[in-house]
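Weekly puzzle thread! Below is a chain. First person to post its structure in token form gets bragging rights.
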Amino acid sequence: MLLLAAGMPAPASPAPPAAPPPATALTIDELAAQVGVPTRTIRFYQARGALMRPEIRGRVAFYGDAHVERLRLIAQLQDRGLRIDAIRDLVAGIDKGELDLAEWLGIEQEVQAPWADDAARTVDEAGLYALAGTRRPGLIADLARAKLVERKGEVYLVPSPALLTIAMRLVAAGIDLATATRSAEVLRKHLGRAVKDLVELFVDGIKEGGVALADPEATFATLRPLGIEAVKVLFAREMEHELRKLIESGAVRALRGRKRSRR
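Winning reply:
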């Protein structure tokens, strides 16, 4: 007051304190070094909406713990086969509280679980003959032409040991290898379409509330055996129907057994 009375200016008010820096304040180069992701990839994730924007201070962008965690999550999801757009939608749902990550990971684990115990195998020549159950001359060449095996240097890759076993059992029953493999292609073609339609049906059912997925493990534990059993039953009924039609047409009388080459 005395200063004002004397015509002297009052002292300036102190500047407000600067906002505290984030717990972890990293430049983009420091962030890239910490998580092992190139800076251009970090910017790409930001552009696609999968990674939140940094905090800008002056002309410098700073990244915090949340960015480190998000980049590690993106890497984990990419390892599971998700594309960046799918990751963007997933993390957006997590950020909005619409989706629980642990729940989603549980569903994803069940979705990726195998439905058949038929993993590809690599075997040597003796192991391949053991799988085929015969050592007849020309067998390996025939199996390679049928794409049931693939040579990899000194070993052989068997994409589906179960289908190889089925093919060889059909051969032993009098059906040549070419017919057996073409039969598998027919089944794969039509079953592929049916499975695609079924997956879309169930996804729509989940979205519309007609399919409950509160316990993914229990749901898929039920779906796997029942789905396989349903295919067996429907295939058997359709085969019975077609064979009855064959009999009714009189075509069975025209069938004659013929000797075949050992293929």
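Puzzle host: Confirmed. Bonus trivia for everyone else. The chain has two domains: 28-99, 121-254.
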